[in-house]
Amino acid sequence: MLNRRPAPVRQQPPQSSDGLLLDVRNLKTYFHVMDGVVKAVDGVDLRLAPGSTLGIVGESGSGKSVTALTMMRLLEMPPAEVADGEIWFDGRDLLTLTDEEMRGVRGNDIAMIFQEPMTSLNPVFTVGFQIAEAVRQHQHVSKKEAWNRAIEAVRLVGMSAPERRVKQYPHELSGGMRQRVMIAMALSSNPKLLIADEPTTALDVTIQAQILELIRDLQQRTDTALMLITHDLSVVAETVQHIAVMYAGRVVETGKVDDVLLSPQHPYTQGLLSSIPGEKKRGKELSAIKGVVPNPFRMPVGCKFQPRCPFQWSRCEEEPGLIEIGGPERRSRCWLQAPEETARREAYEEAAMATVADVVG
After folding, report:
1. 77, 5 in Cβ contact below 8 A?
2. Which residues pair with 25 in a beta bridge?
3. How crowded is residue 324: how many other Cβ atoms within 10 Å of its Cβ?
4. CB half-sphere exposure, 138, CA atoms < 13 A
5. pLDDT tens, 136-146?
6. DSSP 106
7. Is the pLDDT assigned to residue 13 strictly greater than 80?
């Protein structure tokens, strides 16, 4: 597993400033492979308050899952390397903890639901044994108490006959039930932060809705902070309070979910929204973002979205930072938001509003 990155001596900043539970600063995770260096995460900043919810969206390959795995310290090193950054959680920088200290955080303070439960559940043990084992590992209770908590956790996630379900093996359960087991295991130790990485990807639409409703309900009841990773904007619209849109290893737009979805300030976000089918698009060809995510070994100069952007111009040869739009929570990594680009921004906003009208309509 992940070895602790030797960290330079740094002055410890104020712990949990502004009441934050999670404060990710300039995180950079690189992979050293035969063809070169892949900058999977390249300067990501994320902030999450206790009990709040954050959605991370973007195409496959944008760095969403690698960001979460870096936070959990679950990457193999090498080939992975945390080249820079800090991950402050509950007043501690996770990147400076020992392996033993991180094991105390992982599963206890931060829990994660992975994309495919069959790769996370051990096929030779009952689901109840695996939940109880997680409880004993982190709560240090007796076997009987851990087993009772496993039954209660299964009941909490809405599975019928929990006393019977805990005695079943993963292959005896449906995909939706296995995902409920993963949620039960993640919440069994009452974590402060729950990371859900594409928790509904392999499920049909009906079960997806049930799982998302379950996660939202449990998060509200337990006051656990939630980080939801997905490529589906409709999922975050119904589940989270804040959103971070990622592209090519960078956060390109952040803000409250309603602000971002109803008034996108980055062309990539607009492109994602325009690709969603809407009532006004019935019978018409669906929109798509032209091109593909750039080759990680040959990233474009300047703005990484430039080759696919319909609004790009000469200034895009210079890479923009995250520009504040009316406050620190609302930011966009696009020169269109620069104060001197009023005329270009007005033309973009007109097109963006037309996209939102099509999706909402």
Report:
1. yes
2. 86
3. 12
4. 24
5. 887 778 889 88
6. B
7. no
Q: What are phi and psi of 195, to 5 degrees?
A: -105, 120
138 DSSP 8-state letter: H
Give the three-class secondary structure for 8. Answer: coil
pLDDT score at 3:
44
Contact status, residue 286 vs residue 277, Cβ threshold 8 Å: yes
Tell me how far CA of residue 184 lies from CA of 115, 215, 285, in angstroms: 15, 10, 42
Closest Cα partner for 304 from 249, 264, 255, 347?
249
pLDDT by residue (tens digit) across 257-270?
A: 999 988 888 999 98
pLDDT at residue 87 in the model: 93
pLDDT digits (tens, 9 = 90+) for 304-354: 999 999 888 889 999 999 999 877 789 999 998 888 888 888 888 887 777
Distances (CA, A) of 292 to 61, 248, 268, 322: 10, 11, 12, 23
Show the tokens assigned to 64: 């969403």
The whole-number pLDDT of residue 203 equals 67
DSSP of 144-207, one letter per residue?
HHHHHHHHHHHHHTT-SSHHHHTTS-GGGS-HHHHHHHHHHHHHTT--SEEEEESTTTTS-HHH
Contacts of 65 (CB under 8 A, 6+ apart): 115, 197, 198, 229
Q: Could you tell me the pLDDT band of residue 211, with boundaries at 50, 70 and 90?
A: confident
pLDDT value for 11: 40
Provide the whole-model pTM: 0.84
Distance from C-alpha of 86 to C-alpha of 103, rounded to nearest angstrom: 18
Cβ(229)–Cβ(58) below 8 Å? no
Q: What H or E segment, with its residue span, contains residue 112?
A: strand 110-113
Residue 254 has phi, psi (to 5 degrees) of: -140, 160
Distances, alpha carbon 150 to alpha carbons 71, 156, 164, 188, 226, in Å? 26, 10, 12, 7, 22
Q: How many CB atoms sit inside 10 A of residue 100's CB?
A: 8
